[in-house]
Amino acid sequence: MLVVDDEPIIRAGLSAILDSQADITVAGTADDGAEAVEVCARLRPDVLLMDIRMPRRNGLWALAELGRRGLLGPGRSRVLMLTTFDLDEYVDDALAAGASGFLLKNSSYEELTGAVRAAAAGHSALSPAVTQRIIEGHLSGRRRPSDQELARLRDLTEREADVLRLIRDGLSNAEIADRLVVSLHTVKTHVSRVLTKTGCQSRAQAAVLARNTLS
């Protein structure tokens, strides 16, 4: 994986914590978004843990650039955004751009390492505080969906739309299988097709799209 933060102490600390895990290897680091994109293109890590606020090129710019270069998504790299700021616009921007998760810098070691493992496995990883904000945002109403967002749902079957709603609600593949009374393999197939048809690069991005478009 790749650790990206402009503060050397934080970058070194995160790298040490993650590299101490038997199943996690820190292959490299970067101190801004531009370097992160170049290192990612060279090393092709499974996961990037990347700060949002950095000088020169920030994390949101890097996330968009990774997507533009085709380096982001299933079978490529997944991105966990890291910040001290629990602000709605950062959550929405990061997840809508394809981030697999969003962690606060005061997250516990267990939350941090668990999020990296979840992202590597293709799952969404959100801190409890961020998850609660997304739920509250959905319950309090959402903005009118754009024509472009609605067009991304056009090719979904009824069952795939149901799966997308359950992704939005935070259910795991196993929980979706139980809810729909189908096999886990069938759910994985549906999720893969949902991501492909909607152009989403992560479950979290699909959840944001569903929050804005599906009742």
Automatic annotation (TrEMBL):
Q: Name one GO molecular function term.
A: DNA binding
Domain HTH luxR-type: residue ranges: 149-214
Keyword Transcription on entry: yes
What is the species of this protein? Answer: Streptomyces poonensis
GO-annotated biological processes: phosphorelay signal transduction system; regulation of DNA-templated transcription
Protein known as: DNA-binding response regulator
- Cross-referenced InterPro entries: CheY-like_superfamily, NreC/VraR/RcsB-like_REC, Sig_transdc_resp-reg_C-effctor, Sig_transdc_resp-reg_receiver, Tscrpt_reg_LuxR_C, WalR-like
4-aspartylphosphate modification sites are D51
Q: Which residues form the Response regulatory domain?
A: 1-120
**Which CDD domains did the record assign?**
LuxR_C_like, REC_NarL-like
The UniProt keywords, alphabetically, are:
DNA-binding, Phosphoprotein, Transcription, Transcription regulation
- Pfam families given in the database record: GerE, Response_reg
